[in-house]
Amino acid sequence: MAPSTVSFTLPALRMTLRISPVCRRITPSTSSPSLVRCCEYCGRLGGETGTIKNAKKAVPVKYTVDCSKPAGDSIFDTAAFEKYVHDRVKVDGRTNNLGSTVSIVRNGASLTITAAPGTVAKRYVKYLTKKYLKKTIVSEWLRVVAVSKTGYELRYRSLNIDDDAAEEDDE
């Protein structure tokens, strides 16, 4: 059951105002007792009961981590990375709580994390990837780069080997 709205009448203005329980905006109240939208400003769901005809369905978000370059050079183990992410992902503040909201699938040398909106953020996927790189001691050679709105790629860091060799020759 949705939280109820608070409405009050102002005799001087000859109108009834309501305070939205969701966003706490004060808006003129509608004549219908069952409110479908919270207010015209935020459009969040609120009120008591009702159905929405043009509501959007929650589309799951797919995040990908492309590990093809380091996996092709046998530096990176994609299966171990999949297990690490599966064991470490937190849903509702708890690990091993994936349920039907989050699924992790390995496609060759890339990892796809499909999640319900709001359960796993793209930044969290990058955090877990960087943490795994640090754990396996390859973070010195690899970095995580965003390649699209929902994807990351593991790339090699540019190492200045020529500068190090020149300094050793000078000594």
Automatic annotation (TrEMBL):
Origin species: Chytriomyces confervae
Domain of life: Eukaryota
Keywords, alphabetical: Ribonucleoprotein, Ribosomal protein
Gene Ontology molecular-function annotations: RNA binding; structural constituent of ribosome
Entry's family note: Belongs to the eukaryotic ribosomal protein eL22 family.
Any one GO CC term of the record: ribonucleoprotein complex
Pfam families: Ribosomal_L22e
Lineage per the UniProt record: Eukaryota, Fungi, Fungi incertae sedis, Chytridiomycota, Chytridiomycota incertae sedis
GO biological process: cytoplasmic translation
Descriptive protein name: Ribosomal protein L22e
PANTHER family, alphabetized: 60S RIBOSOMAL PROTEIN L22 (PTHR10064), LARGE RIBOSOMAL SUBUNIT PROTEIN EL22A-RELATED (PTHR10064:SF31)
